[in-house]
Fold these 3 entries.
Entry 1:
Amino acid sequence: MTTVPISNIRNFSIVAHIDHGKSTLADRLIQMTGGLSDREMAGKEQVLDSMDIERERGITIKAQTVRLQYRAKDGKDYIFNLMDTPGHVDFAYEVSRSLAACEGSVLVVDASQGVEAQTLANVYQALDNNHEIVPVLNKVDLPAAEPEKVKQQIEDVIGIDASDAVMISAKTGLGVPDVLEAIVTRLPPPKGDRDATLKALLVDSWYDVYLGVVVLIRVVDGVMKKGQRVRMMGTGAAYDVERVGFFTPKMQQVEELGPGEIGFITAAIKEVADTRVGDTITDDKKPVAEMLPGFKPAIPVVFCGLFPVDADDFETLRAAMGKLRLNDASFSFEMETSAALGFGFRCGFLGLLHLEIIQERLSREFDLNLIATAPSVIYKMRLTDGTEIEIHNPVDMPDVVKIAEIDEPWIEATILTPDEYLGSVLKLCQDRRGSQKELTYVGSRAMVKYDLPLNEVVFDFYDRLKSVSKGYASFDYHLTDYKPADLVKMQILVNAEPVDALSMLVHRTRAEGRGRAMVEKMKELIPPHMFQIPIQAAIGGKVIARETVRALRKDVTAKCYGGDITRKRKLLEKQKEGKKKMRQFGKVDIPQEAFIAALKVDS
């Protein structure tokens, strides 16, 4: 590999809303710069989406990096470091990491759909990182494309000049060479001093079975060489670098990486937890004085319990979670036990999609059959003695008498929707205790900003939003702050025994509706036993909803024919006594499906 001067390096990421064509554009760029031959690309869409789930769902979960060589029209050779980022709100922290390692962004907007909620969120993140932005209109070959209208939208909504936006179709390759030229001419080169002490940003890390932990870095100053001893400033650990290289998307080893370059190192690191994302890597012998401004750690916002259906799988589950944690630092878990479900783990996620993806990976990659409890968020409680505690699990809630105040997390949601669905979207937000902040129009689409309690969004807000808007509304949110709320702990009692897996914190005004829906659902799901089973929803000692599963009847008077009525009565009395005794000592079997179905209930 010939070394290229720093002025000929371009580091950029591709940002866009879900499904606007980021990964497809990345494919075309890789193909046109010869990163992979046509034969290697054949029959494989989205080369950079390496996980099965990414390919099936057609989404990007992990940000991926690739280094490309390009000979521009001016005859010079350039090196491009491209980062393909996810579009989903749950993986926004993946986007922020990638943006911190680049100087520019290619903003992809679908010419038929226009600007969406996450387009905005991701562009604002890029602008926060002082990025130069090259707007690109994708899918201009579609009959529904309206490039002029979308250019106007980009200027009105985002406020960046889109008059020279590049028109392309990433699928067919139309206009993609112009994107390559725009990257060379419109994006700035990185800055850095080759002779200074080594200073590199740790962008990402993942576990490889053969190499141990692979660390993705962006060199800011100095040179990263093979055999050098480096120190992670955040954790204070020192390692000897074994390999240095970059991805073309295939791994290529080199002797050194200079300033402005993005590549990987391996150094016999055993645990991904030792490599904190956003950390600064420097020379062990003469470290730099101050660390680079890393980026905010990913904070889990949704918690739920995961339990194996078969109790024997507990150790397998523990090992599987440990392995997932190796590649996904934003996923956290701790052990918990439940009377109904046995041993399991309380896990923290960035959002519901993240939860779904982790669950799916556990069941796929490790062949585990799991039950998830109702998702909940972090509540802050101020007790009467002045202490403050955080509650992740409704079961841990202290006695009501001891609580002075409960605060719940609120978010600011940005929703973009076509005008005809605006009414249903507003109603949905009102129903979820939201308060409207602003309503503006972007062409024929409405952009609404709402303050909503996260508790209401976690349950199934996204699905409901998609159904009331026939899939056209897009949604993005960020946490704002905690506000006091009138929350109560609702328990479900089956045969007078509380089922801890189904207890949840709900707003007092919503408790009755949610409780009634729960008990009705449980009534359908619990099979009849030999005795009546009362199912109740209760707040403290007050029952707010009740259903009864009828008993199986056995005709005890069948063998009595003729004779005195008192004989029949005696048998029926005896049966009644037996049922009463059974209700006292009988155990109710709640099938696993009942938990899963009950947790999906929507009032």
Entry 2:
Amino acid sequence: MFKKILIANRGEIACRVIVTARKMGIRTVAVYSEADKDARHVELADESVLLGPAPSRESYLVADKIIAAAKSTGAEAIHPGYGFLSENEDFARRVEDEGLVFIGPKHYSIAAMGDKIASKKLAGEAQVNTIPGYNEPILSAEEAVGIAQKIGYPVMIKASAGGGGKGLRVAFNDKECFEGFTSCRNEARNSFGDDRVFMEKFVEEPRHIEIQVLGDGHGNVVYLWERECSIQRRHQKVIEEAPSPFISEATRRAMGEQAVALAKAVKYQSAGTVEFVVGKDQGFYFLEMNTRLQVEHPVTECITGLDLVEQMIRVAAGEKLSFGQADVKRDGWAIECRINAEDPFRNFLPSTGRLVKYQPPESSMVAAESERYGVRVDTGVYEGGEIPMFYDSMIAKLIVHGKDRLDAIAKMREALNGFVIRGITSNIPFQSALMAHPDFKSGNFNTGFIAAHYGGGFRAEDVPHDDPDFLLALAGFIRRKAREREAGISGQLPGHEVRIESDYVAVVNEGGGKASRHAIHVAEYVGHLGEATVHVNGKSYQIKCLSRLNDIRIEGTVNGRPFTAQADRGTPKNPLAYRIQHLGRSVVANVISPRAAQLLALMPYKAPPDTSKLLLSPMPGLLVQVGVQVGQQVQAGERLAAIEAMKMENVLVAERDGKVASIEAKVGESLAVDQPILRFE
């Protein structure tokens, strides 16, 4: 077994590999960029090596520097994690040529599956179901239309080297096919330097289901059941679960056997994933093979009790698999939510900056162990750390394991309730809404789920709550407890002591100078610490809670049922307000005396400043382009500027016709949220 390995990655996956290596008694070497010098994976590793500047092309993607780091520290093997160089055939070969071990598949397996056209041919030869289509490069838009007519619409036009949603179009007629081919080819050339495009039948109501495989260097390959990854946004996975709530046992077995056949055909060693698209009739077709560890591997670990990173290391060290297909168990149900640094209420724009507060729910499962029916958090960040703009937006992976699917969903909803993130914005409200959606809970969804239900964007009213008045009741309960504490402060002037009221009014700003007002009565139980009955809007809530007033995460019971919620005292715009969050729903309320509420109603409304003539940065990021000049007349929809954040280029376009009066920011400048970029006349 190896004594020391280098991890050629960052963030949560680097931390994840370190946990298993430590369990196995293997020392670890971390690599890092200048932006990651204080990162968690650097702190956890036994040694660390600086690679270079923050951009990944100057650090994490430089094979020479990584191999040199392994040699200089005496590492015997390199684990690539996922992303970066994990599926780079040349890197895998270089590692082996330099006398090191690549903890992953052999370079020839990566090569065989790395090209989508070649992999489809190989899958067909291995008797794996493939989607009807045309697997040779298509040379012109006219040829594309003719091929589409033979296959039958709808068709999917895909770049051979595509990925992450780039180089992909769906066409339902000749016109869409002609235009889609041209756009797809141009995008592929610009993004990947490879403009080869092929075409296949578009499967309607498709599900994205993948099979986890594991092979060794002795010809043994097993499948570790499936993962359902159909909840996607712009082809990026949002929620993953194992097993799938859709497929039958017969389909499950057939998919697993075909995945093993493909893995054996490419002499696959290590953990890998064979992805399938599954139609509403449970017909399944090969999509691609990911020759690496997947982001969503924890859900497979939960239901099988296997440590996939450990298995990868053992296979790379030359060991045989210690179990066969009949030994692979399937226990319970696991769900993973990707917690990302993005604002779901602003079209999921990236959010970067300092994690002022970071308190994930308590983990009862650890990555390298096989505890059952609990909560697990895989993360690469810590409170006080930075979320840089140079890499992906993932903060953590939140994983739960339940006895069945409904139990897992309930565990996930409660875990999301207790996940505290402040300083940046996260997608937790969106994840909470998905968990509560009736179609998700029933398993009635496909890859178009998010586009169908949230095609117009995600809004606060899209977050369901069985009883939103509970949030107001909790605000009243906390306000009463705060008054009790204030009353206990010594040194108060006689006759002017703080009075503990029972009646309050919660004033909720509805925008545009309008506010709703809710009378709240709090009846304290004498001698019952942390307990009160709160009346609001004709409802009664008996609340028991012993959390401290300065805790953000608060826990207790309401009417005998346990709850976890979050409470902030004061907001940037209103230091006297309470912000309560529960099940993804949020309310900001001033909880004040009835007399204060009367006086507040008399206060004049101050409208926010007019920003209609400004182009403001919607996110923190790097201004990489300003596409207009002073004095230029622009039309609605015209490209104005581009901001780069978290490996994504975000294009800003004109909302209406206008004339540029001034340019307020320079290309290369790091922008803050709402910083002016352009001013119009």
Entry 3:
Amino acid sequence: MEVADWIAANAARTPDKPALRAAGETLCYAELAGRCDAIAAALAAAGIARGGCVAWLGLNGADMLATLFACARLSAIFMPLNWRLAPPEHRAMLHDCPPALLCVDEHFAAASAEAGIAPAGTHCIALGAVPAGWECWDDFIGAGNTLQVTDALANAETPLLLCWTSGSTGRPKGVVLTQGALAANADASVDMHALTADDRVLTTLPLFHVGGLNIQTTPALRAGCTVTLHAKFDPVDAFDAIARDRITLTVLVPAQLEAMIAHPRWNGADLSSLRAISTGSTMVPARLCRAVHARGVPLIQVWGATETSPIAACLHAGEALRKVGSTGRAAAGCELRIVDAEGQDVPTGASGEVLVRGRNVMSGYWRDEAASRRALAGGWFHSGDSGHLDDEGFLTIDGRLKDMIISGGENVSPAEVEAVLLDCPDIAEAAVVGRPDERWGEAVVAVVVPAPGATLTAEGVQALFGGRLARFKHPKDVLVVDALPRTALGKLRKEDVRQLVAARMAAVAGKHEEQVAWRSR
């Protein structure tokens, strides 16, 4: 069954079942199918056909999801944009892949129009107040009322989704995912979550990212579940929805978990309906796992990338307690390899680059053949992540390959050092990078954010490592900051952290009298 048929199939089976709760509105599957039909007709009336691109900039909403499925019917491409980016960043993406249609919700339409983010020839639609020269969404939908849509003949190789990488390791790239990739990812989600039509899913992650869109949301709508969709994350709203809607599954990245665990409601919140919480996108501190498990809810990790739709490795609920710290085994339909710099498989337990093969892997980067060839060399997606497999095939991510610190000829994994830091309750966030060192080549630097009410000193942070890690892995320098630079999904922007460290080093060198939390071992 193609993606275009998912909603209609459920509408035929269970027309009156709630499909989507969003912004105070509940759409049953028959109503959601009708919404998809209306949007598909409007797109067709506007000339959107096979290969045409529709961009969307807005908070999570029912029409955003319906437009994705409408694009699937027409064999068109849906391109969600990260609303946390600045207009110049949106402009760059839209000019890289000029869409026939740009839809912008009420929160961003005025600023987008003023900044002129759309390329010439792009028809701009506003949900809410309409800037000059743009068209109202309701009028746009109404123009297709009399059109009978003829579905384009889609297959597994038909491009459907163009998502932009987070840019945590450089300039964002457009990742092209086919209808088959989304279907394969949905299969993996069903296996990971033991997903059935009886599940009730809460989505608070932004749908512009494959984590919010595809770990549970699109698989749930294929399975006939009920999805509660929040425009954006708020811990109070999340607590309320879990209890009110008897949510069985949700995805919460570590930053969201931190916010919920720190909230006064955490210990007494009604989480009895939850079968599991899925998490990932960045390193998951062991203390978060312990806190969630203490509430009787399995915390299951997932690993992947925009390029893998994203589920490539995952835990199952029954493995969560036994394998804390692991991201699980290869997801259903996926294969994993760990290779060295020469592309040779490494022994069990040895660290190397994580490679992925499966139908969920991207077809390539938008208009970047060279990058596509590098990333998909030999038929495997080269993730750029360093990891190792244990003797049961469970994957542990050690960090990004380019983040590896070489101090005195020894490799230091930032993730290993960060794990010690994040196990301290006085540290809310931590990042570890290397800096140039005349004697050792590179020195380890810890950048930490205090937990609310905590005071951190360089000596106190360095004392955490005594007896836990080899001396050469201990931070030589400690920098205390108010917050770490992160992407929308909570991934550390390591390049920005390095720049922060370099700037602070330059400031210390030039202004010896400046007081900073910066000490050497």
